[in-house]
């Protein structure tokens, strides 16, 4: 494959000087979010080349297949129908998702009416996509909801479970188990320990306070969950794309059903933008073009995301799974080796903390790192407005400083500049905007995958370590390398 070619590389300052309309050309608004790629090295010529590449790589057809419920996860022979959960997809899949949402809402109504007794705490146990999405949304939007105290536990380290349960009354706790297969070892171990905690505290019927979120309802029933408290979702909804399905149950419970519906509609608005906006003015596609410019033309191995909003502090962690589990591949669906870099390493943090931790490397280090800033115009606090003004001022100043740099006679105080950044500015952090933002990142990941020639919907690389761990548990250390045997002997002596 031939990637776009720069006829002559210019600095960011030169690009602004040569094009007075650059901001207009490389900014757009979609689903209530303002996107700015003007401080990247994209040019009109490069965008046109990427548009042609997208056509050549069959992106329009791949997008139609995604929304049409066709088999886009070729290695596992199934569709990827997370968009149907928010009303954009094959009609029969949309209808099925709506029916499952209605089932979820009925259970929430019953819980709120007291059908499961006193419920003040919700212990949500999952891992990966079954935990990261709910955790992000509840942390971002649930701080003032005042409905239920929700804890999300994913780590099999018992300290995580103890920390969550320490503040909970077991007699007023609802246990939510989220697992697509209902066999995920870490999740099921945590769930069994949580049930034991409830039983030891004298809860009369711990299983009667369990809700299961799964694509394998039969396994949940075998485990002991009553069918009326099993909320299924489609097998065609992948884990890291599943927060729109019944995996979002704790979100809807914590925030209220109206908020959950707003989340879905915000995502659906971004779906429609991705489907119908022209390629050169399409937010997920422009973001993918910038991503590919830096990985393929500039050799960048990482991408940094900084949320200048405390409510979005979990966004970088969420994106790490979405982007690296989806596109961290080395072969095409055909099994052929990929001859170019695939996903960069996603990392990041929260502004302004990160400015005093990692920005030294971004400004004066030897590696070029594309930076993405995410912020909101409306504050999320009731403090003096000077707090939010300082937050946004720092955000915008960092982008300006990365681009402009600063000359100095003292090399240690010189900033080379010409460091790229993009900015995503929400009007406010509310359910609709956050739904649109997450959907934007999903479609950006998909667009990158299509242009890279990989399948973003499987994750076989996750399995090897799990298989080896199970082998150690069942068969001991025979056949393992000397280092692993020594570590096991030392830890389990």
TrEMBL record:
UniProt-listed Gene3D superfamilies: 1.10.1390.10, Glucose-6-phosphate isomerase like protein, domain 1 (3.40.50.10490)
Compartment list: Cytoplasm
Pfam family, one: PGI
Secretion signal span: none
GO BP annotations, alphabetical order: gluconeogenesis; glucose 6-phosphate metabolic process; glycolytic process
Catalytic residues identified in the record: 325 (proton donor), 356, 466
Any one cellular-component term (Gene Ontology): cytosol
Keywords: Cytoplasm, Gluconeogenesis, Glycolysis, Isomerase
Pathway listed: Carbohydrate biosynthesis; gluconeogenesis; Carbohydrate degradation; glycolysis; D-glyceraldehyde 3-phosphate and glycerone phosphate from D-glucose: step 2/4
A GO term, aspect molecular function: carbohydrate derivative binding
Enzyme Commission number: 5.3.1.9
Main localization, broad class: cytoplasm
Record flagged with keyword Isomerase: yes
Transmembrane region(s): none
Keyword Glycosyltransferase part of the UniProt annotation: no
Biological function: Catalyzes the reversible isomerization of glucose-6-phosphate to fructose-6-phosphate.
Record HAMAP family: G6P_isomerase (MF_00473)
Family per record: Belongs to the GPI family.
Entry protein name: Glucose-6-phosphate isomerase
């Amino acid at each position: 494959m031939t990637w776009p070619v720069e006829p002559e590389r210019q600095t960011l300052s030169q690009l602004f000087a040569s094009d007075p309309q650059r901001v207009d050309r490389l900014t757009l608004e979609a689903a209530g979010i303002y996107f700015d790629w003007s401080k990247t090295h994209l040019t009109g010529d490069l965008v046109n080349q990427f548009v042609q590449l997208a056509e050549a790589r069959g992106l329009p057809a791949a997008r139609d297949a995604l929304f049409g419920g066709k088999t886009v996860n070729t290695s596992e022979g199934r569709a990827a129908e997370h968009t149907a959960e928010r009303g954009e997809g094959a009609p029969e899949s949309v209808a099925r998702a709506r029916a499952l949402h209605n089932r979820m809402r009925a259970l929430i109504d019953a819980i709120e009416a007291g059908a499961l007794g006193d419920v003040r705490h919700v212990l949500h146990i999952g891992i990966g996509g079954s935990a990261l999405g709910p955790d992000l949304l509840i942390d971002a939007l649930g701080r003032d909801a005042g409905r239920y105290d929700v804890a999300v536990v994913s780590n099999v380290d018992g300290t995580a479970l103890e920390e969550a349960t320490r503040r909970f009354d077991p007699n007023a706790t609802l246990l939510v188990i989220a697992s697509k297969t209902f066999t995920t070892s870490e999740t099921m171990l945590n769930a069994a320990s949580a049930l034991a905690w409830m039983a030891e505290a004298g809860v009369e019927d711990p299983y009667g306070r369990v809700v299961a979120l799964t694509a394998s309802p039969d396994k949940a029933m075998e485990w002991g969950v009553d069918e009326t408290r099993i909320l299924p979702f489609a097998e065609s909804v992948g884990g890291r794309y599943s927060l729109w399905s019944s995996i979002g149950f704790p979100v809807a419970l914590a925030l209220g059903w109206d908020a959950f519906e707003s989340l879905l509609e915000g995502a659906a608005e971004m779906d429609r933008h991705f489907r119908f906006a022209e390629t050169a003015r399409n937010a997920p596609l422009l973001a993918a073009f910038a991503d590919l410019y830096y990985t393929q033309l500039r050799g960048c191995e990482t991408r940094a995301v900084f949320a200048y909003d405390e409510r979005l502090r979990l966004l970088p962690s969420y994106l790490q799974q979405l982007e690296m589990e989806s596109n961290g591949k080395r072969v095409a669906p055909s099994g052929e080796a990929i001859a170019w870099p695939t996903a960069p390493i996603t990392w990041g943090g929260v502004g302004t903390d990160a400015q005093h931790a990692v920005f030294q490397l971004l400004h004066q280090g030897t590696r070029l790192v594309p930076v993405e800033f995410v912020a909101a115009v409306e504050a999320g606090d009731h403090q003096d407005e000077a707090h939010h003004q300082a937050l946004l001022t720092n955000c915008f100043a960092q982008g300006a400083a990365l681009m402009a740099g600063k000359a100095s006679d003292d090399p240690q105080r010189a900033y080379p500049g010409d460091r790229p950044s993009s900015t995503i500015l929400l009007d406010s952090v509310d359910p609709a905007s956050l739904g649109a933002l997450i959907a934007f990142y999903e479609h950006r990941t998909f667009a990158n995958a299509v242009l890279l020639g990989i399948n973003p919907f499987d994750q076989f690389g996750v399995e090897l370590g799990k298989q080896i761990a199970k082998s150690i548990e069942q068969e001991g250390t025979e056949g393992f390398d000397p280092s692993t045997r020594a570590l096991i002997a030392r830890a389990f002596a």
